[in-house]
Amino acid sequence: MTIERLQRAWQRSDGLFAELADPAWREQPIRLRQPFLFYLGHLPAFAWNQLGRGLLGRPAFREDFDSLFERGIDPTGVDAYAPQATWPALEAVREYKERVRAALTSALSDPGFPREGLPVVAMVVEHELMHHETLQYMFQELDHALKRVPQPERLRSHAGASGVASARRTIEIPEGDVILGARAGSLPFGWDNEFEAHRVRVPRFAIDELPVTNADFREFVEDGGYADPELWREEDWAWRMRGCVCRPHSWRAIDGGDGLSVRGLFEDVPFEEAASWPVQVSWAEAAAYARWRGARLPTEAEWHRAARGTPEGRERRSPWGDEPPGDRHGSFGFRDRVPLSVGSHPEGASAWGVQELVGNGWEWTATTFAPFPGFAPLPSYPGYSADFFDGAHFVLLGASWATDAALLRPSFRNWFQPHYPHVFSKFRLCSG
After folding, report:
1. SS3 of residue 416 by DSSP
2. How far apart are CA 210 and CA 213, in angstroms?
3. Does the N-terminal or the C-terminal CB of the chain have fewer CB atoms within 10 Å?
4. Angle between the 283-292 and 234-242 helix axes, to the nearest 10 degrees?
5. How far apart are CA 18 and CA 37, in angstroms?
6. What is the pLDDT of residue 86?
7. CATH of segment(s) 2-146
């Protein structure tokens, strides 16, 4: 099963890279990310450095590539990241990828493969799955002319359907406890920031039933929210001014008119057809909108209480219950590849009636990314989380349409800088 999971992840990687037209490999559609060619080398380099060289002690067959593609960059700041001036030839990177895969397939097929190495294999698989999402939001920013494939007809049929979102409604959540994190030994694999499980008392609060939509956020824009420094933290206002940020990054002006469109993976969608999609913004913009509405973002503990708590006092594994995630519970697992109208999966609601907590966009929280009590870094990847415990990253929870179902466990945490607008995100408001 281990080798099959890895091979399935490789197959999806190949499918995503196949969507790029040849001139796109050295493109840097997100200025704070590396070019696509880096990621073609990074995925096998990570796998080889963790499994081939790290776990099994195999000698390097491309030490320069093992080093060059070892680790990506944190998308910080407001300036463009300047990648190295020259890159290896595309065919050389592809050959490296194939050699790594062949060597690892052989090693994992060996009956003598050490069982204590299975968590490292699981880490390599999840790393690959997470980068599938990174590749998708880079792909969304890429000029459509550099994409090899047209929008699939399956998506075209509903990508522009606005639907009718429910009226704004808040739900009262009573005071109660929630368990954050996972207990050591309870998961086949977990990243270091997921441990150790601990109980948190959550005071009474109110939370929106649904995430904020593009239509909701347009009210903030038209009311001058981007021009009012009182709504922004000082560092966020400075970022907004430096970048001349005046609307969500995914909103695009339509040439020759006053209209707007919303960026999609394969084509831009007229604003009116995307009005009920969840708005995709940075943490800074979400926090400013919340202040404008006289509200705030939920904490990590409040989000979990709304998602997993029950009136009876027990906790569910997922908002909808303890059964595995399915199509009716939310938009995740690459099934849609576009946002859907908020509230499209009422069967995924929590015990309190809060909808869409998992799927259709990662949800920003007010909690800075920090270790749980009892944190211990991964021995083979000690900097995975610890490098980001700097007070400058915020926790996101849930999942987007581009999140693999394997990552939907309750303890999984995502995190980003507050000024990064590219992640497939959403947010909802909280008070109390």
Report:
1. strand
2. 9
3. N
4. 120
5. 12
6. 84
7. 1.20.120.450
Strand order, beta sheet including 394-399: 414-416, 394-399, 361-368, 425-426
Please tell me the predicted confidence (pLDDT) of residue 162.
Answer: 45
By the 8 A CB rule, do 273 and 161 touch? yes
pLDDT of residue 74: 63
Distance of alpha carbon 224 from alpha carbon 204, whole angstroms: 32
**Tokens encoding 335:** 């099934």
Task: Spell out, as residue ranges, where the chain has pLDDT lower than 50.
Answer: 154, 156-164
pLDDT of residue 355: 97
pLDDT of residue 362: 98
Pure H helices in 243-297: 283-292
CA-to-CA distance for 318 and 357, rounded, in angstroms?
Answer: 9
Predicted TM-score of the model (pTM): 0.94
Superfamily name with CATH number, domain 155-212+288-431: paralog of FGE (formylglycine-generating enzyme) (3.90.1580.10)
Contact 338, 156 (CB under 8 A): no
Q: In the prediction, which pLDDT does 419 show?
A: 96
**Cβ distance 384 to 369 under 8 Å?**
no
